[in-house]
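Problem 3 from the worked examples.
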Amino acid sequence: MWKYLLLVAGLASTVWSGVPLLDRRAPTVTTKQETEPETGYRLPNTTVPLKYNIELTTHVHDHGSAEQFDFEGKVIISLRVEEDNVRNITLHYREITVTHVKLSESGSLVLIDDDSSFSTDSTYEFLVIEPTSALKVGVYTLEIQYNGVLRTDNGGFYRSSYTDASGRTRWIATTQFESTDARHAFPCFDEPGIRAPIGLKITHGSTYHAISNMPIKSQVDSTLPNYKITEFEDTLSMQTYLLAFVVSDFDSISDQENKQSVFAAPSAIANGDLQFALEAGVKVIGALEDYLQVNYSFPKLDQIGIPDFAAGAMENWGLVTYREEILLYNATNSPKSQLKRTASIIAHEYGHQFFGNLVSPAWWSYLWLNEGFATLMEYLASDKAYPELRIQEMFNIEAVQTAFQSDALESTRPMNSYVETPAEISQLFDDIAYQKSGSVLRQLQHAVGDRTFRNGLKYYLEAKQFQAAIPADLAAGLQNAVDEVDDALPGDVKVIDIINSWADQEGYPVVQVSRNEAGVVKLHQERYLLKASDEGTKATWYIPYNLATYQAPSFTSTRALDWLTKETVEIRPTPSLNWDNNDWVILNIQQTGYYRVNYDDNLWELLIHELNNGEYSNIHHLNRAQLIDDSLNLARSSHIKYDVAFRLIQYLTQEREYIPWASTNNGLAFLNRMLAGSSKYDLFKKFVWVLVEPAFHHFTVTDKPSESHFEKLTRNVVINWACAVDAEECLTQTSSQLAEVISNKTDDINPNLKSVVYCNGLRNAERNSFLFIWDRMQRSQDPAERTLITNALGCSQDAELLNLFLETSLDASGETNYRGQERSRVFSSVYSGGKVGLETAMRFLDKNAAAIDKMYNGGSFGGRAIGSAVTGMARRIVNKEQADEFEVLITKLAAGNYLNSGEVSTAKELIQENILWTTKNYDVIENWLETNMKSGANKLSIFVVTLVASLLVSFFR
């Protein structure tokens, strides 16, 4: 499941439009290992379900009635008692009222039939059935009657709404059960390793319809007037969190041949906005079945867009739910980047139909067996469905390089992390479960070869289908495939050892590459940390490695040349992989390995020369992106000097490929944020403009229909940077385009340029223009457009307007029409927009904490809107004055119970790291900028530095 709030805009427009593509959550605490279980929250193993039969009645169609949001339920559970002398039956429940229980032996002997032979524990969320005598081994039937209320926090069995063509509010009842919310809809054994078939009947208004995981079995009139009963076919054996059902008056489109349908509010269907989602669903499931050599298991596969949805999407078996905006694509009004976004998220959720649904993790400790594979399949399957979008190439910048940031903190956690409480479980849905785990699996895929990897996954899925798995089961399937191929792995390297080395220890390595006078290349691994640890950084992973060199510049094969299993290994030239001491060497071809690479001084100089002397294209564009990301982050962590990184990225004056620019986008965003308070900030902006100007003039601020997806993304990156560093022609052109919209000279901006033109056009806009665009957002019924404009409004550099924007997010009068998830998005767009926005947001939070906690949490997954905001803001605190003010703020918030101890400590760690960075690097960077970017010398300086470096390298070659 995409557990992060997805906030449109492409990666190219994220740095300056306020809010990242994914409001990803970094791990905040290091959790316990499987060997340190915490008792209390796990169900006893004395009883197991054999079958659920659920009956629900909802009145959500009955607008304005007193019972509209109430529901009544009955669940009949066939279960087996696993041992003699069992004193009770324990299930999960949450926020429901149990009214009656009945327990019978298989022979129909009634043991309980009353409203009192049970107890509840709200702390552990246990419903305990208490027979008068101990139970023996055997099969029993448990019937529970209960009632509840549709929730308002987008979790469990909850309510959502939309506005129809007549302006009326139409309510729907829908579900979101992962990770621990199925227990809100019916008492159950709510753990991922416990599976059983599920039967479902829903009684609902006759003007509405019900859909669920399985096809409809029958529909009959209810004894209740104007109600009907929809009964579904029984599911296959599955875990409770994958059950889903929606009661609504939505419309749908279908591909009957492929048994797929897409449901959404009637207007979206009428506009044709779901056609692409239907097409992509059919293509993606075909690509997955072909790749995995395993068939999809359920008889149909539906998708539905939900207006209020805290997560991005959810992989319910046979009925995938999405935040509405994710599924919408309009060929006229949507940017080309939306194709990629929709296709890849569909691929993520469809990947779960195999990884997570067909085979589930034995416990949440192994969540990465779900989310890591779904992340990998997200790119693999969508790329196979739409190869022209080059989606797999984006894995490096969106997954690998994103995971590097979170996983470089001391507080990061291992992939295998033991948890018990619902709060701890929800914290596992982070960069480690998604991006890191997907990157580690991709590393193994490339290292052993794709065919071997595919066969291993087939063996794993077939062996464990409809069962729970642990990492050793995955290793066994892959080892079977490895054993069929002579050279898939060295004889002394086993798959289980590889997996354990990456899953059981936190962090990741940096591989130091050096070459001696005899031409021997030495590789040495150690843990990479953004700041040096007092305990040292010694650690060992199983690292696959390969090389490209000046004499053997092939970047095609990503198979492992060998494995680094100890701290150090030495490599000597061979006839097929040769080099001498004047040749550049690049480790980790196409950056398919999950590790950073640092070179000795001479090798860095050779790489800088190769990039800057006009032959940069000799190095694969994915490795150019790797060199950019590694060098800027190695400088950030003091592994190398910033001089090395700055001279390397000077080659960007020649670069036109998207992936290197996207990597640059991330690296420069950090520097821009950190240097905003420097006295030499203007020199930094000059430096960036020198890098960006050639590409800016190449791409211009005009969309070209014949361009590729990547060309459009690259244009957005360079426009954003040109405007961010106050390039007059950029600000003038974006402002004038926006002015034409405001003056009604044109209906709107080209959709491929809309995010960057709105953001940068609003940067210095006056009040009337700002309010015009805000009103446009409020009037829009298009959730994607609403997100885009919300992000853009946060780009304003006017504190008064930003504060006014923030005030609208707390309006409870009905004059604004924000959804729950949109209110917190307003806040994050403001604090992400720069120094002015950050300081405005800090003051606003200080003044309005209680209201923010109440209003924002309605659409926030996990109900930690303030905690999430404080962590995001802490990343942007860059000087002592801000730090002192922020410290007072978080102390106050903690005292008010708006922050927990983990959120406070994470915020303080992030701030301390930023302040430490400025202390260590300000003088160094300012001196470099003064030397190289003095007025009138900027371009000449870069030319001279590059020329000198080239001459030095040529002299030694």
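Problem 4, a separate protein:
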Amino acid sequence: MACTVVPNAIFKNGNSIPMIGLGTWNSPPGQVAQAVKDAIDVGYRHIDCAHVYQNEHEVGEGIAAKIAEGVVKREDLFVTSKLWNTFHRPDLVEGACKTTLTNLKLDYLDLYLIHWPVGYQEGSELFPMGPDGKTFIFSDADYVDTWTEMEKLVDAGLVRNIGLSNFNAKQVQRVLDIARIAPVTNQIECHPYLHQSKITSFCTANGIIVTAYSPLGSPARPWVKADDPVLMDDAAVGELAKKYGKTTAQILIRYQIQLGHVVIPKSVTKERIASNFDVFSFQLDDADMKVLAGLERNGRICPESSAFGHPHHPSINMVVTATLVTLNNGQKMPVLGLGTYNLLGQNCIDAVKTAIDAGYRHIDTASLYQNESEVGQAVREKIEDGTIKREDIFITTKLWNTSHEASQVREAFDTSLAKLGLEYVDLYLMHSPVGATVDANGATVLTEVDYVVTWNAMEKLLDTGRVRSLGVSNFNSEQLRRVIENGTIKPVTNQVECHVRLNQKKLIKYCNEREVVVTAYSPLVRPGTTFGAEEPTAPKHAFEDERVLAIGERYGKTPAQVLLRYLIEIGTVPIPKSGNPERIRQNLDIFDFRLTPEEVRSLDSLNTGQRLAQQGQCVELVKKAIDIGYRHIDTAFLYENEVEIGQAVRDKIGEGVIRREDIFVTTKLWNTFHDPQHVEEAFRRSYDMLDLGYIDLFLMHSPMGLRFAGYEYADMQPKDADGNMLFDETDYVETWKAMEKLVASGKVRSIGLSNFNSEQIERILATATVKPVVNQVEVNPGYDQRKLIAYCKERGIVVTAYGPMGRPHRTTYGNHNALGDPKVVEIGQKYGKTGGQVILRYLIDIGTIPIPYSTNDERMRQNIDVCDFKLTEEEIEYLASFHSARTIPFLPLKSHKYYPFNIEF
């Protein structure tokens, strides 16, 4: 063997530790003693063991045999053991150490570590399991109190050095802050698939040696799955092994040593023990070290997942990063990113910075989103404060449809890059295959520009060095085929809507066969939902599906985490959007578990093939409505479309079709924002998303407050573990007072109510300094609200009618539907109108302002064409005869103290 003298690492206290040792975790019983003897014969002088490995007696036998043979003396050896989690309580530490010494047949340990920062219930069980059979029972012991007892072991001569294992940086710092004797090492999982650069840098800066366990990727770990990546089979490692004439294990061990880490590979095979030791006769060059560093994929092998939930679990406050996927051009992209659609202004800046701090290294934006400047600012600030380097972050932006002409592509890209303020973008996508242009009148119209021509122009951007990869978005298989066949550069990704309700498995398969990664937008099926989903026949939101909940319970994960993990399992890169710091962090915490094939198949069954409304659909719908003649647009935070509404209105103002003062825009304060302290911020978000200078009418969506959970769409339906709505008892009168202050700001012209009964309105009027101008409620022939209308009219309050057609295509709660009634049709024929037009006229004639919803061009035109006739008293009374019941009774809120529908009106 070329080298029999092992170099030592020097602890901060001056003591030394051999750079390579024999690990004994997971070694088969009955073989450990011989493995220790073989290791000592080869030249190992560092043996690593632990009480929880349950083989210290065998380790002791091997050591004793070699000392008896005269091969080594006790002082030649460096023996490490660890305090197990059930002995964290201070009064148990010394006894645990003495038990280990007895098992090892030794008088002292060279190094004793706290095995994990988490304490388990004290007792004879090494793994005290709770009733769920999945989570350990925890101890209240704090590891800083345990550390004080560890120091006493040094004082007593039982231990020469003390250290830590599996501690994150904040936990190490807590120990340093109280330590009389500083830890000499932190033993952590470390290999090319998990570099742990932040904690290793922290330890180095504080004079703490890193000891790397599982340096070979622990291929024989008990919980390994058949499709888990195998580090020792990695092609890059294999190439280096060929280059140096070494085994892959020797390459991986040498890598850790050159990083300055003590390394403890495990084996019980004599030949492999010897081979693992033969790593001092060669040295990896700098280029090879970079190759191994480039294999990072956050591939944690030992997450101690059954201790998730413990306040001292090392994953708490630990930066988590997404694993990487290699694109067809060799570039690497994190397999989870932050979507930024609908994130605007400071909210966008804060969200991106929070994401980067949490560990995100993939941020997705677009010219269409109007937030490239904010995304760029956030990234630059995190570069400047040293959190990341530019090469650490993967930035995607997109070419919008109005720049599809070949001559426009370069300018559009330059504009996006300038807004981002970065030297380059990692990925530039064609946002859709559909080209458009702005005509002389400022109107956006579709063009026939071939997306292949656009793609060919995009390919030239690669020559500038300012974009690393190109891809497409919203392309079907045929469109993708044409791009591949007619381009010189293959797209690296196709970004499409993809979630558990639309799992795109056929498209994913098609893309995989062509080495094109699928990026999944809207991965959480838009977690904000409307009350319309209460219909018994409607499928539950995926967050509430029993299959999703059961999987989440098994792994201790949220429904969102399960759905994101599902998308990764089926081969996509999800880009969930959130501005909520906690949810941003949760969405990233999906790399410590995997779904079984059975669980994936279970979630496959949720696929309905139903798409969400496309981002441009609402924009075009509103623009058509304005062109037809509508000048009143009703939206709400709940509807998740304020950005699109604002864009459509601004476009029509820009075209000269309308002026701002010609259009009346209503939006609403959602129930989770009733606490006065949230009203202003909730309004600001709606105001910023609409971006129209002011809002004409701002309504309180209902008198029923829900518990505040954040300002995200996903926070709108807060529920307990049993699926019950979490109520807030804020008095809506206090909410109204906070809304009154908004009027003084000049940003809203009028304020009003929605879904209020007469008694609740009376309470508002009794204290109001600004009178509500509107009460928006369900009104249709099946529930005509005549008494409430009369009540509001007497007080100068206009009634706005939602659901004017009575939800004719849904199962209702006894509502007598008028649409399609023969007599109603007959009345329509008399006036040359449809049944729907007769109903809308009826609602106008009884004193309401109806706000019908439609996506059909012809029906939109019909709905506004109701001002050239009036119904007779007899016809009005006939339509009044349909009065029966509500279609939307808000049943999940029926027990709320401010439920408005318990009285007649």
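Solution to problem 4. The domain at 9-307 is CATH 3.20.20.100 (TIM Barrel). The longest strand covers residues 467-473.
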